[in-house]
Each structure stands twice: as C-alpha cells, then as structure tokens.
Amino acid sequence: MENILENILMFVLGLVGLSFLVTIHELGHFLVAKWNNVKVNTFSVGFGKKLLKFRKGETEYCLSAIPFGGYVAMAGENPDSFKDGQVPGERDFTGKSVGARAAIAFAGPFINIVFAFILLMILYMVGVQEPANKELIIGFVGKGSPAEVAGVLPGDTITAMNGKETQGWDDFREQIGVSLGANVELEIHRGGAPVMITVVPEELVIPAKDSTESETKMGIGDIGIYPQNRVIVRLPPMAGSAAEKAGILQNDTVFEINGNHIGRYEDVVRQIDGSKGEEVKVTVIRGGDTLTLPMTPVYSEDTKRYMIGVQMGYVLFRETKFVRRGPIEALEKTCATSLKMTTSIFRYFGRMFKGQVKVDAFSGPVSIVAVMGNVWMSGFQEFLMLLALISINLGVMNLLPLAITDGGLLMFLGIEKLRGKPLSTKTQSIIQNVAAAFFISFFVFITILDFGKLGLFLK
To answer: What pTM value is reported for the model?
Structure first.
C-alpha cells in the first residue's frame, strides 16, 4: 500500500510540474493575443473532455482530461471556418497582420525559454550543489562491462575524455550516453601516472526485476563505471533473518543484487521486494573481498513487502560543493547552461543519425511525468533544475518548423510575408495533415516505449 501511494504521489507531482510548464506556454499565447485584441474563446490546460471550467468575460477557462498539453482557441484561427468570400473580422486571428500573428505564435515558446533562464539565474544566486572538482574518481567497475574489458580499475581518476577536461559525473554520463558504439578516449590517472584507455560504450540495459518482466533497453551508451557511492549494512542483521543466515555483516557494502548495481537504498528495496520471495544473490564488498551471498527474502506483514532483515545506510563520498554566485557570475553561468540545454536536443538528433543514440532513448509524456515526480521527491532543487531543462526544450521543440508546432505557423507566416499572400488553405491543410499523421504515429510509438520503461520508476 505504501508503494502504491508513493507511485501515485510521484505521478501527481510530475503532472503538476508538466502542467505548470504547459500553462505558462499557453499563457504566453493568451496574453499576446489579448494584447493584439484577438478574441480568445478558450484557454485550456490539457486536451479532450473538459473536467473543470468557468467563464470570465468572453473566455472559457478549463482543465481537460488529457494533461499532456493544452491550447488557446482564438476566433478566426482556422481559415477553413470562413465561408467563400467571407472577410475575417477585426478581432479574428486571421484578420491580424503577419507581425501580430507571428508575435502570438512566438510568445508561447519564448515564455518557456525566459522562464527557464530566470529560474536558473535565481538558483545560481541562491546556491546549488556542483562538482567539487572536475575529475572523476571511480568507485566501482561493473563486471564484464566495457570499462572492465578496457582495463579501467576502481580507484582510477578520469581527467579527460576525447581530449577534453571532464566536467563532473552528470556531463560524463551524457557524453558516454550519446557515444553508443563509438571509440571514447579516456585519460586516466593511476598511481600518479596518466594512462590512455579506449572504451566503446554498449547500450544501457536495465535487467528485469523478476521472471514476469523483460529487460529494458534504454537506447544510450554505458561503460559500467560508478562513482564512490556506497549502500552499507548499518546495523547487524536481525536475528534469524535471511541476511543473518546468509552471512551478511554490519558495515558490508551492498554492491549488487542479482547482478544489478546498487547505488541507492531504494535500489535494495526495489530488488528485494521485486523478488516476490524467490532467491536473490546479494554481492557485498567486505574489506578487500567481494562475496556473493544467496538468500531468500521473506514477506513482512508489517511493511507489506519482502525483506531480508537488514537496515541500510547510505554513504556518499561527497564530490560536490555548495556554490553561491553574485549577479554577474550567475548571469554568465545561466547563459552557459541555457546554451547547453538549448542545443542538447540537436546533439541527440545528430548522434542518433550516426547510430550513437537509439530511438529508445527518447522519452514521451509518461516518462517525463514519472521522471519529474521522482526527482521532485528526491530533492526540490534538483526538480527545479530539471524543470528549467524541460521548459527550454519545450520552447525549442515548439520553435522547430514542423508544420503543427508554433514554429510551423511561423514558417507559414514567413512564406506569407515573402509571397505577399498566404499559401492556399488546401496546401496548408495537406501539409498539416501529413505532419499531424506523422507526429501522432510518433507520439503513439514513443508512448508505447514509455510504458515499457514505466517499471523503472515505480517503487
């Protein structure tokens, strides 16, 4: 029951975050439409059936059933709504100048980008956790992983990747993630001497939790190294428990369960409860030894989940520091981060065409909501950073000239400005229908992938 409530809370928080970004996006369209004296019939957060609604003035405000989006319905927005020879009214969207219509279309993505910029600026001035140093000290190397095969060892320090200085674990994971199947040159310091090692990332695959599920392919690269984070057995195992019988001791580091690396307390809970009472193999590190201990979890009526009788402790070798910046430094950092976030989607598309990222790596609305909820539950500051990232990407994606996006409308308006007249209604409809068919198919495909990944986020 506890896990169900946590999962519900996760999705509720994620929906709140995504709905907020959608709301400010549509608010941009709404405010600029009003400023240009366009009649707005409906302002909706979400699509489909209207669940809650009220009218203020000429506009109906509503919350709709499908929360992955929203819309502003303006009078005269659709050219098909006019009969032959009918002239748009002065408050119709189509009756406004190209500049006014372009401003309305641009306002939604613009407010998403501006919001992200302001949020980042505030975060950097208030203070955020950042890597204490740019070097990466390796805590664990996965058995049989590309890193182990290449000769990477625990305790090695990575100082550069493909000739560029490392910038912390998050940046490192991103670079490895978009290098699937490519040669990656690592400069490693071992015992004070630099060593050059070439690794080839393999696709990150999350093993199934039990026999009823299948493994999940993530579509990005991984080399199987982990920072110096440890989950330890904080107290002696409970008397008579599965852990005690198997020989687990206080201060053992829980490294793997059934071959899955353990980096968080939640990983232990998920793996043990996911066993449904079947035997698990717990790999622990004790001193300089690595031991694999089989044991059978037992169902607890008190906690309503399977347990092995240990209390976990989380030991984090802190490789971050709290950094607070003044206005000028915060502005510089915000500009650099915004640029990186803005261009990230193009880097992913570019790597995808090279085969270094697979389509499985893309996330749809279900995964985005789950990730946002998960991150919010882990830490509010981390959630705000993620909110800024998604907001910028939402803005950038909507500015792409993809026919059914705001960027598509801007493209049509640009053509109208150059030609002195708009494309025919028939031509626009054909382009939009083809684009809509493609994107609906893509949306369905990505959503199917999302549901395949859903188990990764459930407690």
So the answer is: 0.73
